[in-house]
Amino acid sequence: MELSADYLREKLQRDLEADHVVVEDTTLNRCATSFRVLVVSAKFEGKPLLQRHRLVNECLAEELPHIHAFEQKTLTPEQWTRELQK
Amino acid sequence: MSASLSRAAAALLRWGRGAVGGGGGGGLPGVGVRAASSGGQAEQLDALVKKDKVVVFLKGTPEQPQCGFSNAVVQILRLHGVRDYAAYNVLDDPELRQGIKDYSNWPTIPQVYLNGEFVGGCDILLQMHQNGDLVEELKKLGIRSALIDEKNQDSK
């Protein structure tokens, strides 16, 4: 099982049919394997935050036990467009 | 900044919950130790998260958070003037640390519970704080966020 930013990014993109995924390795800030992810997916539409985060957690169910710190931001395509316009 | 933090810390110590840092660690005596089966522990945790309106599981204590994400939760609650909450330090109790993750099916600490319901971790609390949802959720619990008063002051 791999724990690279690229691997996580591909897995998230595939499983969540994401429009856009950014995975940052934040290990240096946290002293142990850590990541920050941004996922933009239509699958989040109509779902409250907790549900969205759980989708991401489920996608990375195998990897998360080996990750020390995990931050996530989950946006729908519409929310992402609005963010870009800011 | 430090003056108001020490006031907040003093306030937390005053209600003498024992669960919050203070004398002898913030871990929960008996939660992990007594539960022989996972069923027993789930029930204990269920009772724990329902005992208070606002319950958080942290690494460290509100006066001394041991993790940036746990600290963020503490600071957000402080900003909203939420002083009366139960805080449990998972670093003092490895069974609690794992148990609460199993209970909520959520892989990380900190964990925030409002009215007995799991709300999320630091990311979610932060977003709720930024988009106004936290003020609303606190209102439902009969807690008036300090930020409402601040906002009103600004607009006068």
TrEMBL record, chain A:
<comment type="similarity">
    <text>Belongs to the BolA/IbaG family.</text>
</comment>
<protein>
    <recommendedName>
        <fullName>BolA-like protein 2</fullName>
    </recommendedName>
</protein>
<comment type="subunit">
    <text>Interacts with GLRX3; forms a heterotrimeric complex composed by two BOLA2 molecules and one GLRX3 molecule; linked by [2Fe-2S] clusters.</text>
</comment>
<keyword id="KW-0539">Nucleus</keyword>
<dbReference type="GO" id="GO:0006879">
    <property type="term" value="P:intracellular iron ion homeostasis"/>
</dbReference>
<dbReference type="GO" id="GO:0051604">
    <property type="term" value="P:protein maturation"/>
</dbReference>
<comment type="function">
    <text>Acts as a cytosolic iron-sulfur (Fe-S) cluster assembly factor that facilitates [2Fe-2S] cluster insertion into a subset of cytosolic proteins. Acts together with the monothiol glutaredoxin GLRX3.</text>
</comment>
<dbReference type="GO" id="GO:0005829">
    <property type="term" value="C:cytosol"/>
</dbReference>
<dbReference type="InterPro" id="IPR045115">
    <property type="entry name" value="BOL2"/>
</dbReference>
<dbReference type="GO" id="GO:0051537">
    <property type="term" value="F:2 iron, 2 sulfur cluster binding"/>
</dbReference>
<keyword id="KW-0007">Acetylation</keyword>
<dbReference type="InterPro" id="IPR036065">
    <property type="entry name" value="BolA-like_sf"/>
</dbReference>
<keyword id="KW-0963">Cytoplasm</keyword>
<dbReference type="InterPro" id="IPR002634">
    <property type="entry name" value="BolA"/>
</dbReference>
<dbReference type="GO" id="GO:0005634">
    <property type="term" value="C:nucleus"/>
</dbReference>
<dbReference type="Pfam" id="PF01722">
    <property type="entry name" value="BolA"/>
</dbReference>
Automatic annotation (TrEMBL), chain B:
<dbReference type="GO" id="GO:0051537">
    <property type="term" value="F:2 iron, 2 sulfur cluster binding"/>
</dbReference>
<comment type="subunit">
    <text>Homodimer. Interacts with ISCU. Interacts with BOLA1.</text>
</comment>
<dbReference type="Pfam" id="PF00462">
    <property type="entry name" value="Glutaredoxin"/>
</dbReference>
<dbReference type="GO" id="GO:0005759">
    <property type="term" value="C:mitochondrial matrix"/>
</dbReference>
<comment type="function">
    <text>Monothiol glutaredoxin involved in mitochondrial iron-sulfur (Fe/S) cluster transfer. Receives 2Fe/2S clusters from scaffold protein ISCU and mediates their transfer to apoproteins, to the 4Fe/FS cluster biosynthesis machinery, or export from mitochondrion. Required for normal regulation of hemoglobin synthesis by the iron-sulfur protein ACO1.</text>
</comment>
<keyword id="KW-0411">Iron-sulfur</keyword>
<dbReference type="InterPro" id="IPR002109">
    <property type="entry name" value="Glutaredoxin"/>
</dbReference>
<feature type="domain" description="Glutaredoxin">
    <location>
        <begin position="54"/>
        <end position="119"/>
    </location>
</feature>
<keyword id="KW-0408">Iron</keyword>
<keyword id="KW-0001">2Fe-2S</keyword>
<dbReference type="InterPro" id="IPR033658">
    <property type="entry name" value="GRX_PICOT-like"/>
</dbReference>
<protein>
    <recommendedName>
        <fullName>Glutaredoxin-related protein 5, mitochondrial</fullName>
    </recommendedName>
</protein>
<keyword id="KW-0676">Redox-active center</keyword>
<keyword id="KW-0479">Metal-binding</keyword>
<dbReference type="InterPro" id="IPR036249">
    <property type="entry name" value="Thioredoxin-like_sf"/>
</dbReference>
<dbReference type="InterPro" id="IPR004480">
    <property type="entry name" value="Monothiol_GRX-rel"/>
</dbReference>
<dbReference type="GO" id="GO:0046872">
    <property type="term" value="F:metal ion binding"/>
</dbReference>
